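Regression report. Comparing outputs from two consecutive submissions.

Submission 1:
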Amino acid sequence: MKTIRVFMFEQTHFRRTPSKVISCLLFFIACLYSIYNGFDIQHSQEHIIDRIQTEQAEEIDNVLTWFANGEKGPKDRDWVDIHDPYWALRYTPTYTIKKPSILLPLGIGQTEQYGYYKEISFWSTTYDNDMVEEIANPERLLQGNIDFSFLIIYLLPLLLVILTYNIGGLERDKQFEKLITIQYGSIRIWLGTRFAFYVTLLLFAIVSCVVGVALINNGFYLLFAELGSLLLLAIGYTLFFAILFFFVLIRSSGSSASAFQMISIWLLLCVVIPGTVHQYASIQVPVHYMTDYLDTNRKETYATYALSSDVLLDKLRTVYPEITKTKHGKEDSKEDKIIRRSIGAIINEMNKDAVAHIEKRNEVKNKIIRSSYWYNPVSFAQNQWNTYTYSDYYSFQKYRMEVQQTIDTKIKLLVFEIWNQKTVDREIFEQYIQALK
C-alpha cells in the first residue's frame, strides 16, 4: 500500500509542477507533429507511386494502340519503328519502385536522402542524380523533417532528466532524507517508486504512438514482427537510460549534482561518442570521394563512345560471349548500327564496377560504425530503429540492387533481341512488359 500511495503522490506532484507538465506536453506535441510529418512523406510517396503507375499504364496502352492500328510510332517521329526491338524497348516504360513501409511515420531515416522510384533506361545507373541527389549536396540535409525516432533517441533522455533530476535530491538538499527512511523503511524503494511513475508515463506515450501508427496504417498484423521489435527497442532504450539515471539519483548528493551527472551522461552517450565515431569514420572514408569517382567514371563512359566498332565488339563479346551464337553474331560482317546500339551493355558493366567500388567503401564506413556499438548504444539504437522502418542504408542498398537487376534485364533483352534481328509484334511487346515488371 505504501508503494501505491507514493506512486499516486508522485502523480499529484507531477500535475502540480508546471515546468514538468509543460515539458511533457511540448515533447508529446513534437512527437505527434513528427508522426504527422512521417505520414505526410508516406502519403506523398504513395501518391507519386500511384501517379507513376497510372502514367506507365497509359504509355503501354498507347504503344499497344500503335500495334493495333498498324502504326510505327508517334506521328511526329517518323524515324521511330516500334517493330524494331531497340525502339520497342525504349518505349517500354520501366520503373523500379521502393514502396514506403507502414512504419515509415515512426522513423523516416534516410528516406529524404535517397530516391524511391527510378525510371530505367539503357543508360541508367544506381547512383544517378535522381537516386542520390542529396548525397552530393549536404546543405539539403539541414532542411529535413522532424523525425519521431530522433525525438525518442536524443530528446527523450533529456525529458527524463527534467522530470526526475530532483527526485531525492530535494530531500537531500533540505537534509530530511533520514526522516523518509524512518517513515518509509527504504529510501531506494521510495526513490524507485517515484522514478517509476515517470518511466511508466513515457513508456505509455511511446507505445501509444507506435501502436497508433500501426493501427492507422492497418499494419498491426501485417508487420507484427517489425512492430514488436520496434516496441522492444524503444522500451529497452528508455529503460537503459532510466537505469543509468536511477543509479545517479541514489548516489548523488543533491538536485544540482543529479542534474549535472545526468546531463553529462546524455552528452557523452548522445553527442560525444556518436560524433567522435562518425568523425573518425568520415576521416577514414571521406564522403566526397564518391562523387569524384563517379565524375571519373563518366569521363570513361564518354571515351567509350569514341571507340571503334571493332574494339566495341570485342568488349561486347567479353560482356556477353553468347552473342556469337545469335543470328547476327554468326554472320561474318557485323553492322555498325547493331554494335552501337549495344554499347549500353559495355557502359553498364563499367558502371557496375564503379558502383561496386562505392559500395565497398560505404561498407568499410558501416563496419567502423558497427564495431563501435558496444560503447556507442545510441548509434546502434538509431540504425536498428531505421532497419525496422525500412529507411536505413541497407534497405536502400537492397532497392539499388533491384534497380540494377532491372537495368541488367533491360539491356540484356535489348542486346539479344537486336542481335537475333527480331521483329516485334504486340505479343512480343507484351512479353517485354512482363520481363521488365
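Submission 2:
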Amino acid sequence: MTNLLNDLINSGISQSLLPLLAQSSEVSGSADSVDTTATIIQIVIQIVVLCFISYCTQTFLKKLGYEKAWYAWVPIAATYAILEAGEQQDPVIWMLISCVPGIGLISLIKLIPAYIRICERLGKPPAILWTFLLCGLGALIVPIVLAFT
C-alpha cells in the first residue's frame, strides 16, 4: 500500500490534480465578498419592503379609526391589529396560532374574513381582495390597495 502511495506521489499525477482539488485564495476571497454583498442587498430589500407594508397597514388602520395603528410596525402585533380591526372573535388566540410554524396557516381562517370586513368598512369591494390573493401576491398588494385607494 505504501509503495502505491509513494509511486502516486512521485509520479506527476498528484501534482497535476492539485490545482483541481484546491481553490486559490483569490477566487474564494472574491466569492465571499460577492456572497456578503448579495446578503446585505437582500436584507436591505427585505427591510424596505417590511417598512413599506407596515406603513400601508398603519395607514389603512388609521382610516378605520383604529386607536393602536402603530401595532402595524410590530409583525405579530400587526396580525392582532388586523384581526381586531376586522372585528374577528378572539384576536389574541388567533394571533398566537399564527406564530406556530405549520399550524399558523390555520390563522388564515380568520385573517381572510378580517380583510373582507376591513374592505367593507373602507367601502372597497371584497373582490379586490380575492383577486390579489388568487395571484399569490395578496399579502403585499392588499395593504397597498387598502391604504392608497
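Expected: both submissions complete independently.
Actual: both completed, but the second showed a warning that disappeared on reload.
Relevant detail on submission 2: Residues 25-63 form the longest helix (39 residues).
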